[in-house]
Structure formats: structure tokens, C-alpha cells
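Page 47, continued from p. 46.
Same chain as before, 282 aa.
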Amino acid sequence: MKMSENKGGQIHPAQITKEALSLWAGNLIPLVAINATTVIAQMALVATLRATGPMKEAIRSGEINAASFVLFGIFVISSIVINSFLCLVALNTLRRKREARPYLLAAAKDAIKRTVPFLKSFFFVWCFIIVGIVISALFFQGGRALYALTVKSLGHGLALALLLATSTVFVVVAISVAWYSFFFSLAPLIAAYEHKPAIASLRFSRDRIRGNALRYLAAFAIIFVLYFVVGLGIYGVITRFTHNKLILELIDPDVLLVFGPAALATWYVSYKKLTELKGKTA
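Result:
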């Protein structure tokens, strides 16, 4: 898209959604296969974790021991690495040229070399989120502790005012962390596909989203509404024929399996459009 087509350098949520759904529909089978592989890999990791002796003991006793803690850490790291790799395979599938064959093998090979920078940027985004959560939690818990300590000496009114002040700071920090995390959401893609340093990718992401944040968010909101409407429609049709609990419980996972990659396509198309607005190539 040319700058002349973006009035004031703005992206258009409906246009992003249209292109994302087109990409999703054109690559539906491989995207669903990759998504299913992700689910199967997660199930296999969970089954492996539960089958280990230390984890069995921890589940049986209800207490976390050192071995089970280490195993759970390995499980989390393995899940993140596998999910990131398969996410990149799916993104490469969306980025491929139509004539490329066999594209899944090429997508996997390309994803291998991009996984580390993707993970580095992802790590710094999560560091920002965790630090923000810790700071906001400290204000929240500190306010409660301060109220308990001062309610007798200062009186209920002043102690309550301190509690409200710290609670307000907690809310402001929490909202700020969520909002700025959204501004950093393009960072893993920038690090993976543009070879930018992990920390610098956060700044590039913020700069590209600035001025289009609500429009960028609106594109995901449209996808969510479509997912909700489709799921509700399927649920309504199936309940006309059966109310079997097992069948009804499978509706949401199955719709998510098929429709979930549409959100990934929206992420990629948004990245591409916002990058084009900055005069770069995606």
C-alpha cells in the first residue's frame, strides 16, 4: 500500500481484516495443520511432564519439590521455544510466494534461523510485563499493609485515603503496562525479520504503532467479533440437533483451531502495513 492510500499515514482496520482473512483462507489447510501440531506438541509435553516421577510425587503430595520445579521450568521453556518456532513456520507460510514449492519445508528451515531473535525480543517484552506486574502488585499489597498499620494511629479516614492512593497507582501502573506491552507487540517480528537487536526492536515497534494504536487494536477486535459470531452460530446450529455435553465442549476448541490462525494473519498484515508506512520493506 502506498502512502497516498493511507490518509495521514493511517492504517485501516477493515482493510487489514480483509487482507488477513484472504491470507488465512488461501492458506487454511497448512495453517490449521500447523496449529494442530502446536496443540499436539503441547499435549505431548504435558503428558511427558505428568509421567515423570518427581511430578507424580508433587501431584500426589500437593507439594512442589525442587525436582518438580526444575521439570516444570523445562516444560515452560520447551513450550515457548516450540510454540515460537511453529508460529514462525505459520508466519513464513503467510509470507510465501504463491509459486513456492515445497513451501512448508522452506518455511520450517527459515523459521529455525529466526527463532532465536524472535525469542530474545519476546523475552524482553515479557520482562517488561513481569516487572510492571511486580511493581503494581507491590503498590497494591503495600497499600493494604499501610492501611492495616495506620488505621489505628491515623484514623479510618486518612488510612483509607492512603489505601485509595496506592490502589489508584496500582490501577494506573497496571493499565500502563498493558498499553505499553501492546505497543511492543510487533517487536518479535521486527527482531526476526529485520535483524534488529532485541531491545531496539521494542523501540521500533513502539514507533510504528504510535499514531495507529487504536486502529491496530480495532483490527484484532474485528477478528475477535467474527470468531465470537462464527462460534455462536455453530453452537446454535448444533444445539438444534443435540445437547450432548462432550460435543458442545468440542465446539470452542475446534473453532479456535480453525479460526485462531486468522489472528496470526492479522498480526502479520498489521506488521506489514505499519512497516510500509515507515518506508521500510516487510
